[in-house]
Amino acid sequence: MKNIVFFLFLPLALFSQEIFEIKALEETINTFGAELNFVQINDSVAFYTSLNDDNGYQSSIYFTKSNNGKWLSGKYSRYNSDSFNTGDISFSNNNKIVFSICDSENSCDLVILKNDKFSKIESINRRGNKNVQSHLANHKNQEVLYFVSDREGGFGGMDIWLSMIDKNGNFGVPINAGASINTSSDEITPFFNPFEKKLYFSSNRKGGFGGFDVYKSNGKLNLWLNTSNVQEFNSKDDEMYLTFYSQEKGYFSSNRKGAKYETTEFCCNDIFSFESINI
Predict the structure, then answer these.
(1) By three-state DSSP, how is residue 108 classified?
(2) Is residue 170 classed as helix, strand or coil in its secondary structure?
(3) Is the Cα dihedral 137, 139, 141, 142 positive or negative?
(4) Residue 155: is it exposed, middle or buried by C-beta count within 10 angstroms (0-12/13-18/19+)?
(5) How many angstroms separate the CA atoms of 47 and 45, rounded?
């Protein structure tokens, strides 16, 4: 598995009794480096994280625009720090923007864009810990930030946590997502799918296909039912950063066969899309 900041065509797959086509994105997006966390925010714009030779393999956030159904070459976004690794950007319906910044000591903080300036989320960050992979979600009238951290009080490794956001935009004290989600292994890249009301995430727990697998669970906040392996997305390699743009379409990152590599096959994560098709 390629170093991840904490921050081809494949056969058709059967997914929840629907047929989805899975394919790697264009070479305008995928490089010999690593591409992660592809978030489409409207019909023509998406953001993603990349570690590539253009930026000295420092993690940075890029944006891309769609033209005739194809994603154009990614451009360096304004949501970056020239001195630190940045990534894992998340957007809310009311224009909140959260992402992570990691320093040379591998301590990672979550930051929010306020008044066109980056502000650390002090109620969440803890020096010496990784606080990464943010995802803004809404459960009816309650806004919440899901994120990943190796802080004390978890079940071991990286856990999924959450912070309740009040009407004034203040972030609450972190709450562990609970034993139905987290294990002694690593649980990462949470995404709440508003179309199904399910939390999708990845884990390298025992019993998977290999590496990080995608799992899902019904519920909200720290009240979740038992998780299930989303077999249709998973391989013997790593699958993570699954996002939905619509009920029929989304993206994930994987180092499976079909990902670009320069020296070692299956070394590098690329972005893959999935989309419902009619047969």
Answers:
(1) strand
(2) coil
(3) negative
(4) middle
(5) 7
Residue 125 has what DSSP assignment?
-
CB 211 within 8 A of CB 204: yes
Single-letter code of the amino acid located at 143: E
Taking residue 123's Cβ as centre, other Cβ atoms within 10 Å add up to 12
Residue 192: which H helix or E strand, with range?
strand 187-193
198-256 pLDDT, tens digit each: 999 999 999 999 899 999 999 999 999 989 999 999 999 999 999 999 999 999 999 99
Centre a 10 Å sphere on the Cβ of residue 41 and count the other Cβ atoms it contains. Answer: 12
Q: How far apart are CA 83 and CA 216, in angstroms?
A: 36
* CA 264 – CA 60 distance, rounded (Å): 23
The SS3 call for residue 66 is strand
φ, ψ dihedrals at 231, nearest 5°: -55, -30
Q: For residue range 100-136, list pLDDT tens digits in order.
A: 999 877 789 999 998 788 899 999 998 889 999 999 9
Structure tokens at 190: 């949470």
Tokens representing 96? 């909140």
The identity of residue 154, as a single letter, is G
